[in-house]
Amino acid sequence: MRLPEREYDSNPTSPHFHHRANSSSLSPSPKANGHRSRGPVAKVELPGATIYDDSYIDREEYIRLVIQSLRDIGYIESAATLEAESGYVMETSRVADFRRCILEGAWREAEEALEHLGVAEDDGLWEAKFLISQQKYLEYLETGKTTKALHVLRNELAPLHMDPEQLQPLSSLVMCSDAADLRQKAGWDGAHGSSRRRLLVNLQSYIPSSLMIPPRRFVTLLDQARLRQISQCVYHNAPLTSRHFSLYADHACDTDLFPRITTAILQVHGDEVWSLEWSHNGKFLASASKDKSVIIWSVGLNRNPDISLHQHLQDHPFAVGCLAWSLDDTILLSSSEQYIKMWNTETGICIRTIEAHTETVSALAWVPDGSGFISGSQDRKINLWGSDGKLRDSWGITAIRITDLAVTPDFTRLVAVGESAKDPVLPTPRGDSVTAPNTNRNGNNGNNPTPNGARTQEHLMIVYDLTTKQPELSVSLGGQLTSVKISSDSQYALVNHAPDEIHLWDLFTGRLARKYTGQRQGRHIIRSCFGGVDGNFVVSGSEDGNVYIWHRDRAILLDVLTGHGSGSVNSVAWNPRNAQMFASCSDDFTIRLWEPSSGLAHRTADVQSHESEPGGKGKGKSREPWVEDDPASRSL
Amino acid sequence: MGMSYRRYLAGARVYGCLSCRTHLTTIHSMISRAFNGQHGRAYLFEDVVNVIEGEPNDRQMTTGNHTVRDIYCCKCGTTLGWKYDKAYEQSQKYKEGKYILERNLLVDVQ
Ligand SMILES: [Zn+2]
């Protein structure tokens, strides 16, 4: 970044610019001699103790951090000049000596110096000495000086050790065959590796930070400022590189980078589209439809790629509800009622059809190591399958008719949602004395295709320990649960909850962390997902035909995207490799791709004519116009 | 219409669709066994789940004129019976909003 020179001159009282002004006056032609001789720099006497009159930043602290930064960068002379001019030193000669002793392996001197570095008496000092002796011991072993090492073990480590458990692994290292074996077993990279520097960092926690400034302290503070600014940037959707963060101004993402414009409408399915999943490489989008088919769309990661229909997987006996890509994207799973189908994604050939569940398969999830997948069903069973489609394990009958499940990326937990197995009793004829506790009916008009009888099921989110298959948490929730996704850090579960709520559950604490509201969800399976850089956003379908997007951590509704036709937006999926693209699917038979408005030409889509399905099946749906006529895109 | 899972029922006797065993209703919801459908004996029920209702049309029945809708199994599409929207004879009003299921198309699922 180049700034006009006057920017520097405009602030001559700022202490850290003094040196610049002085040096130019001291040596008129600085290039004349590499080793400039100049007079001693005079200490500048300043009133007060802060860097500005109205600031709470202590001047000494601030200058010492500047000196540390200058040294780290390599501006050694500037650092020395600043020390002279300010009268502050980065650290006392005692601290500098201590640092040098550790890095050079002068252990006796280091131990002596430690006594004068303000380490808390007793425990702190003991632990610090233990760390030094441990390093010394390992270094003796590394160079084959076993006798000296054993001496350290007996006379220094043994008397110091507080925890016998800690000493045993150390003493067993004597048996190591050679230095390489030792380094491997000790998880230690040797005297010439980074071990001495790491020891210094460890020792630093015992020494008051005012004496010995923690490493890279200035940058640590600036990083905190950066994270704070990013947390305030609700549309934040850019990777954390220096390109997107400047010290000169507070960070704020351009909302133009946020995907809010329809850039393609994919319209080949002949009925409602219920589910979407991106391949892990982000190049393919699979869609599942009530028309008993799955389509794999080729989308590509480049800007303005052609979208084409890669495979149309038609051989399903019923409507298709779930999809799951294998980790290497070579196999796509689809579920159609009680059947699971495994497809070769390249050839479109059905590899295997699995019929092991007795009711609708409602969830499919590959395990994080790619060795197989888990299915959940309305028959209350959870099954584990090998990647060859052979049953490896079954969890038996669970407490719920499963509506969705997900495995945490760290492979420790499985989160299942569904209705408790206590199925409801239907209302009895009026006047009948055989009354179950739940004979109240919801308003049931003639338009309702499946009448709402008594709804008294309990809706549960159950968190299972994956190794023991035992529930470790079971939460009873008020409404139907239709979708569960796990955050990439395995901490949060995102759960769609009727009516009209999405919950973010903290799996570590077992508490509700956030609630997202605005979308409409009553009777249908509506799904949501995380998305964007760092999973900053939550996006969901809705029964009002719109797409809803929130900031994940602040739970602010950022956008309500219109465009889909009548009916529900059933599911959404954020591209895992393109933080600025997601897809939505709807009862209107279409899939929409959403991307930022800036710098994006229209995608060329040749997807309408591929398969001429008999459209509409007499439902009287009005087909949505093609992308050229889409009002949301016209403003581009 | 959107995606939904079928509902499951509990009770002493759950009736399901003969061809696909989808739960439809329970014996506690039965009002009368004294009906006839296209396939013989039929039952009148207070409530039925997991069916799709067709368009309304007027039908002249033995007990008078009625507005009815055919009902289909939501999984396999079998026509299972009908629902009464409106009965024109005062004595038949009790059937409004109730469902007829053909006995020969039902199976005990529990
Ligand atoms: Zn059926």
From TrEMBL, chain A:
SUPFAM superfamilies: WD40 repeat-like. WD repeats lie at residues 266-299, 313-353, 354-385, 534-550, 562-604. Residues 1-40, 422-454, 602-636 are annotated as: Disordered. GO terms for biological process: proteasome-mediated ubiquitin-dependent protein catabolic process. Residues 102-148 form the CTLH domain. One of its GO terms (cellular component) is GID complex. Residues 603-626 have a biased composition (Basic and acidic residues). Keywords: Repeat, WD repeat. CDD domains: WD40 (cd00200). It holds the Pfam family TPR1-like_2nd. Residues 435-454 have a biased composition (Low complexity). This is WD40 repeat-like protein.
TrEMBL record, chain B:
Residues 13-110 form the Yippee domain. The keyword Metal-binding applies. It comes from the Eukaryota. One of its GO terms (molecular function) is metal ion binding. The keyword Ion transport does not apply. It holds the Pfam family Yippee-Mis18. Keywords: Metal-binding, Zinc. InterPro entries: Yippee (IPR034751), Yippee/Mis18/Cereblon (IPR004910), Yippee_fam (IPR039058). Belongs to the yippee family. This is Protein yippee-like. It comes from Lactarius akahatsu.
